[in-house]
Structures are given as structure tokens and as C-alpha cells.
């Protein structure tokens, strides 16, 4: 049996001469996403030119190359649809929150009014130059570029756009930032000073295992096997933005407050335990023996704190590193304690994330192979390890020394005979 033919009204084009003297055509292209029929309008000075244009449009329709541009959405409209309808099906809350912030702060006002079909690579490159002139970092600009690439790729996939201009546009070249970790003596001073803090093993763990801040604060005692000397990373602490819980009036919150955190009926925000950021982040890490003993003593201290607090203790989660009265420890408070710890130990100032860099560097300098380091750190890409060039260079020097000792030990260098 042959393929069933489409009705004539779905395949034929109507041609007519308008009052303006030009020739016009209405070509049926199919159904729009809302179910209505889309007819594309063409206009030419001569009937022959119009017929050729109609044939080209019909070929693109019949071969599936036609791009649906009935309304030719603005970039802002497409981003709102992508971030509000498409991406939430697969992306994590933190990813969505970050993408929305980047598009709102760096794209909406400057590029958002452009139609998708109008955006050219040069427009994006000009925007990136303006961001550079405004003092934005290369890291921020490249992050904006990556989000635009993803958003416009989805527009191409859904036939809202013929091609993605962000794939052609060139963002500023990435600047490699050299990792400047703590030295071994500095790390030891920090661990010694940490014994006077609320959760001493928190900082020993940061410098020896390189746990991310959210991973460390999300540890439960059920994740730690002190007898086996291992811990399992299963979750992380994350702060979510509060949403208004009040009824909206004319698109504005009914409570009259701008921020969801100020709404008396706020919902969905605050500190929460979430899944780790990647599959590789869900990992099992072997504990150094001294850290196991630290954790044993720390668990006894936490139990005493809980008994002393009584009913005032927040026992929602059995946390390894709870706040002063139990409950999840605020990442901002954790960061403040890190800064105070650096001061107390007489150590130079650095970011909390640099404790993770320190752990990775110390592992590499001890000759731990890169695949094992990646497993311990929860890295997913080998490119991440390339930031630790200083450690890799030291390993190369050691390898050269070992090879020299192996082949030339206790022997004189061979003499060259002419």
C-alpha cells in the first residue's frame, strides 16, 4: 500500500497579486505547537521569483529542514520558556538558580530584546567585549556563554532556530589560575588550631580528603564507618531561595514584600539536604587512621552537647558536624569559622575551597596516581587535574631522579670515544 497523501490544503500554496502590485503566497507549513495551522507568507516582485521561493520553502518543509518561526520569539521569551518549562525536567535546583541569575544579570537587558533569528555571532562577541569593559571576569563571561550555548542549542533542536550563533562566537580566552595551596607546615598549624573549634574534624577532613563544603556539612553518622575506616558521600547541604506562599495579585506578591524570604507564608527555601552534584560525587573515601580517632572523640563530644541541650537540640538529622544547637550548619557560618581559623593559626588568608586544592596537591605530591586522586576528590574530568601543574611537575622531577638512580647508580658516566 502506498503512503497516504496529505489533504491538498496542507500541501498547496495560494498565490495572488496584491494591491501593492507585488505577488504574494501563503504556504501551509504544518501545525504550530499550539495546534493551529501555520501558513508562511512570501512576497516577490514577479510571479516567477515567487514560484521559485515557494518551491524552496516547500522543499524545506518536506525534508524537515523548516524552522518554525511563526512568532520569532525574543531571546528573553525563549530563555523564560527554556528555564521555566524545558530545563526543570532534567536540571538540579542549583543549576536552574545559577542559570536564571546569569541570564537576568548579564543578558536580559542587553540582548533579551533581540529576535532569535536576528542574533549573530558578532552580536554575542560585542556583548562579551562590553562585559570585559565593565569589569566582569573571564570566568563569568565564559559561564554566560555556556548557558547561551545550551539555551540556543535547545532552540535549534526544537526548530525555533536554524543554527546556533553561540557555537560560532568566541568568548574571551580562559585564564588558567595557578592553584596556591597550603604547605604541609601550614596545614599542620591549621589542624592544630582547629582543636579549639566547635567541630575539629571538619577542618582535618577538609585538608586531608578535600570534601566540598556542602558534602562535609551534609555528612550523617550513618555515612561514617569508623570500624571500617571509610565514609560515604551521599548528600550535600544547599541553601535554596524562599518563594512567596501568598496569593499573587496582578503579578505581584500579595504580601507586598519583594523577597520571598520576607513573606510570612514563604515556602521551599532555607538549608536543605540534596543529592551530590554529579554521579562521581557519590563516592566512598578511605579515612586516614588519625582522622578515624579524631572522629571517635568528636562523636562523644557531639553526644555530650546533645544531652546538655536537651529539648533545645535540633535532632532532625544525625549530623557529623551540627550547628551549636544541632541542625544543619549554615555554609556562611562555616566560611566565617574557616577565616577565623586561618587567623588563629597565623596562616595566610585564602578561600575555603583552597582547602580542597590543598588536599588534591598533597595527594599528588605523595605519588598517588591521578585516577585514584580523581576518585577521592570526586572529579569527573581529567582536565580538572591539569590545574595542578606544580604538583605534576614535582612528580616528573621525582620520576627523572628515580630513573637516574636506577640506571646510573654506582657507575660512572660512559666516556665518549671519538
UniProtKB/TrEMBL annotation:
It comes from the Bacteria. The gene is intQ. PANTHER family: INTEGRASE_RECOMBINASE PROTEIN MJ0367-RELATED (PTHR30349:SF41), PHAGE INTEGRASE-RELATED (PTHR30349). Residues 31-40 have a biased composition (Basic and acidic residues). This is Defective protein IntQ. The keyword Glycoprotein does not apply. InterPro entries: CB (IPR044068), DNA_brk_join_enz (IPR011010), Integrase-like_cat_sf (IPR013762), Integrase_catalytic (IPR002104), Integrase_recombinase_N (IPR010998), Tyrosine_recombinase_XerCD (IPR050090). Residues 1-40 are annotated as: Disordered. Belongs to the 'phage' integrase family.
